[in-house]
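Deliverable D4.2, example record:
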Amino acid sequence: MTSLRNTALGLAMGIASASVAAADGHTELTIAIVNNGHMINMQKVAEAYTADTGVTLNWVSLEEGVLREQVTSDTATGGGQYDIINIGMQEAPIWGAAGWIEPLEFGAEYDVDDMLPAMRNGLSHEGTLYAAPFYGESSMVMYRKDLTEAAGVTIADNDSWDNVKAAAAAMHDPDNGVYGACLRGKPGWGDNMAFVTTVVNSFGGAWFDADMRPALESDEWKAAINFYVDLLGNYGPPGSEGNSFNEILALYNEDKCGMWIDATIAASFLENDNVAYAQSPNAGNPVGANWLWAWAMAVPTGSPNSEAAHDFIEWATSKAYIQAVGNHPDFGWGSVPTGTRASTYAIPEFQAVAKFAAAEMAAIESAAPAATDIKPYVGVQFAAIPEFPEVGSAVAQEIAAALSGAKSVDEALAASQAAADAIMSEAGYY
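Output generated by the structure prediction step:
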């Protein structure tokens, strides 16, 4: 991927969109979304929006990695395929600064101050909001308390990785289709590397040193990746190198996972009544052990339907939308998108059904995206620099190869270091 650093800031300006006004004069919006549950639900809830406004909504639903690739390519080149795009905290500030997406301003009723500060700050550049969060998340442990009780083990908040491994081993029963730990293995900077980076953080590692040189062969990285490969290789489901959020969600709801460490938003889709929650484990460094992310909505610069796109985003990320999902006959209060607004957590109907709410809020509030002495960059499970998607994607392939057994951990990290070093050097960091 070409670095934003080397791309003209006005590239996306003035390009005609593939979404145009229909012949009878009404507006059509083409919206690129990730194929996660809350986004899929939105298509149904938004039927009322079309009925009220006459705006036709054309949905392009894509798997996470494909969405990132296509949206980045289209937005960077001003391709104009989409009026609204799903992006997150890695992209929003950088793309906003580059002029690729439009700043967002909403009316007083929207109540931007109700937005959780972590989400608002992560989607802004120099105080200007460039993407509105549809749902927000951190990460936490979700586990089968019936299985931990039967095995005589416990999982505590901020537990040690050694205790987590012991719990996974105790619950692991592959002969009966139960795997001790289900964790992301599918390659992608926002797939396996989202989880893997938090493990590395918890071991005291970082993507880059103080001079922004890749540090992927450090002792901390080696310890973390060896632990990850061992844990998932011994106590995970077969073919874990192909599993990300949706695949593991299906496994969990088929009662095949003892524990799952992943996005807090998953809790609203878990069907087993025996689920319990704990804050993310660490190996001595709790800073960065749980990630921070939002799937948000933005408007590519130059869309001829910009005003209609802004109006839709204002509705889809509003308090009214939360109410619409909560009162929808197909969904209800257990299915509302969370992690964006403080007011959601004060709704009595939501509190009554959302057993995960307190754990989710604790995880979001404890996430630490700011630069530290260990990591000289903003971001928890990513680095907020233009080159990170390319670096992260290259390393993701190597970690997946280590997980599958195609390479040793040392071989995978050596190849990761070489790839990352080449990218950062070419980008002019040193």
